[in-house]
Write a structure and sequence with these properties.
Aspartate Aminotransferase, domain 2; alpha/beta; 2 domains; Aspartate Aminotransferase, domain 1; binds pyridoxal-5'-phosphate
Length: about 400
Amino acid sequence: MTTSAELIEMSERRSAHNYHPLPVVIHEAHGAWVTDVEGKRYLDCLSGYSSLNFGHGHPKIIEAARNQLDNLTLTSRAFYHDQFAQFCAGLGDLTGKDLVLPMNTGAEAVETAIKVARKWGYEVKGVEPDQANIIVMEGNFHGRTTTIVSFSTDPEAHDNFGPYTPGFRLVPYGSTEAIRRAVDPNTVAVLVEPIQGEAGVLVPPDGYLSEIRELCSAQGILMIADEVQSGLGRTGQTFACDYEGVVPDIYVLGKALGGGVVPVSAIAANRDVLGIIQPGQHGSTFGGNPLACAVGIAVIELLNTGEFQARAAKLGEVLHARLRELIGKGVVEVRGRGLWAGVDIDPELATGREVSKALMARSVLAKDTHGSTIRLAPPIVVSEEDLVWAVNQLADALYELDTA
Ligand SMILES: *Cc1c(COP(=O)(O)O)cnc(C)c1O
């Protein structure tokens, strides 16, 4: 058998170093637990950056995928196929929107929203040709395409990938006053993560999303909510915008929409916005393919039960209560909503990576982001007992680092 160490060495030798993975080689996974090639088990507290909200190998999702594999996997959008209508109707109903435009990855869905907002700006709002601007937030993460990294404030994501796409205005996250000042007659959209995931699970001040909603409605600007990571149950609601009763003009969805099986992303919007896209103006060979739609339908059916949202809310309370007890014991701050937490470790004690490695030694897989922050986002199917156990591992790891 090839060992983990050998597989890591071989992986590093022949792959670009665009990631810095923890030294674990996963072989199989079920529910909230993964097993490495040596047979050691770990509780997954990352969930593929919230792509695995329903756990690894959820029986309903796998069944849908299996059935579809036997029938039809790809047609391209040159033809209709028998899974497409139900996927679009299901996602339209879940979002409360008229129309859905399926893509594959989150970044593609964000790009789709940007294109739609610009075209809407020129054709509906009457913005001057080529002058559309979109207001975006400092600390944003919307993916890795050249246009998207053009307005990233993370030097690693941004630097040396120019020339950059113009048409974006950066403002501090959490300030509606800053948005108000940045708006001009050519502003077509405000693009916002309802909770900034990659930035460290930053929850904006209460009222932020509803103020953006009001401002956008009053000024004739589209509100685009990037719910790729925050959406589909993670926060204890279907969408993080639900916490403020806010309905954006465009939902951007991805990650968990693919059920942990295939990449599935989409935007959802009403006809007055998304109706401006005509044949030939946007698309994707794989977007809305039969396998993706079958998996997406299964995901939507799980969400329609409401069980996952309720479970994330309930377990989220357990998670956050237990994490807050660690403040002053190696933890500086805890943020988040539902089953999603950003935990700032005392930088004097350890980096996020060191804590992630200490957790790994204790059979918990988590990932750091930006310096001394780790994020915890176990699959929503995690048991309460396992969840409490995982936070106890964090407490013990921090204690050990402190006394080492
Ligand atoms: C992950 C993520 C994306 C990009 O998704 P990919 O599938 O990696 O392209 C976009 N927006 C947010 C908020 C994300 O978390």
